[in-house]
Design brief:
Helix content is about 45%, strand content about 15%. It has an eight-stranded parallel β-barrel with strand order 1-2-3-4-5-6-7-8, surrounded by seven helices. The structure holds cytidine-5'-monophosphate.
C-alpha cells in the first residue's frame, strides 16, 4: 500500500482548511513554499492539530548548518516528512539526517521534472546527461548519506527502486486517473501503476483540488494505492 499525500496547492490557509473539511479521508497533506510563505508555522501547527501528517516540501539546498537548523524547526513543528535537494551534497544531507533524528522522514529531490537533458546539462556543466541514470545516481548518494528516500517522477520509480533498499521511501508526484487531463505534468502515471512500480507515497493535487466533489476523488486514489 502507498500513502496518498494531498498537495495543498491553494492560495491560502482558509481555502486549504475549507477543502480539508470536504476531504475527511485525507491523512497526509503537502505544504509547499507558496502556502508556507503566506501562512507560516501556525498553519502547519493547525494541520498537525487536526491529526494530519504534514509533508513540508520546501526543497532545502543551503550550507549544512542552515539546512540542519531548518530541519530542527520542522521537527519542532511536528512535520512528518520534508525535502532537501540531493545536489546540496553529502555533508548537507548527513547534517539534515542527524537533525531529523528519526522523527522527520527526509526525502531528497533529485533532478527537477522541469529539466530536460539539455537544461540539466547546462545547469551542471555537462554535455550528455541521461536523466534516469542521473536520478538513480543521486538517489544512491542521498540514501547512503542517511536520508530516508527520494522524490522522483513516475518514469524514474523503477530505476530508483533498483538502486535503493526495500526500506527506502519513494515519493511520486504526477499521479492521474485514466480519465484525467495531464495538465502541465509530462511524466504521469495512475496511482495503481506508480504503487506497483514501487512508490511508497503518491502526491496528488489538482485531480482532487479541482474535483466537483473532492471526497470521492480522494477515495478513488486511496483505493488504487491500496493495490499492493
Ligand atoms: O496538481 P498535481 O497533482 O500535478 O500536483 C503535484 C504536486 O507535486 C504539486 O504540488 C507539485 O509542485 C509537486 N511536484 C511535482 N513534480 C515534481 C515535484 C513536485 O509535480 N517533480
Amino acid at each position: 500500500m502507498a500513502e496518498v499525500i494531498l498537495a495543498l496547492d491553494l492560495p491560502g490557509g482558509t481555502e486549504a482548511m475549507r477543502l480539508l473539511d470536504r476531504v475527511p479521508d485525507a491523512r497526509w497533506v503537502k505544504v509547499g513554499s507558496i502556502l508556507m510563505t503566506r501562512e507560516g508555522a501556525p498553519f502547519v501547527r493547525a494541520l498537525v492539530a487536526r491529526g494530519l501528517q504534514v509533508f513540508l516540501d520546501l526543497k532545502w539546498h543551503d550550507i549544512p548548518n542552515t539546512v540542519a537548523g531548518a530541519v530542527t524547526a520542522a521537527r519542532e513543528l511536528g512535520v512528518s516528512m520534508a525535502t532537501v535537494h540531493a545536489l546540496g551534497g553529502r555533508t548537507m544531507m548527513e547534517a539534515a539526517a542527524v537533525a531529523a533524528g528519526g522523527d522527520v522522514s527526509l526525502v531528497a529531490v533529485t533532478v527537477l521534472t522541469s529539466h530536460d537533458p539539455a537544461s540539466y546539462g547546462r545547469a551542471v556543466g555537462r554535455r550528455e546527461v541521461n536523466l534516469i541514470d542521473e536520478v538513480a545516481r543521486q538517489a544512491k548518494e542521498a540514501f547512503s548519506a542517511g536520508v530516508a528516500g527520494v522524490v522522483c517522477s513516475p518514469a524514474e520509480v523503477m530505476a530508483v527502486r533498483q538502486v535503493l533498499p526495500e526500506a527506502a521511501l519513494v515519493v511520486v508526484p504526477g499521479i492521474r486517473r485514466e480519465t484525467d487531463v495531464p495538465g502541465d505534468q509530462v511524466r504521469i502515471a495512475t496511482a495503481r501503476e506508480a504503487t506497483l512500480a514501487g512508490a511508497t507515497h503518491l502526491v496528488v493535487g489538482r485531480p482532487v483540488l479541482q474535483a466537483t466533489d473532492p471526497a470521492p476523488a480522494m477515495r478513488g486514489f486511496l483505493e488504487e494505492a491500496a493495490c499492493r
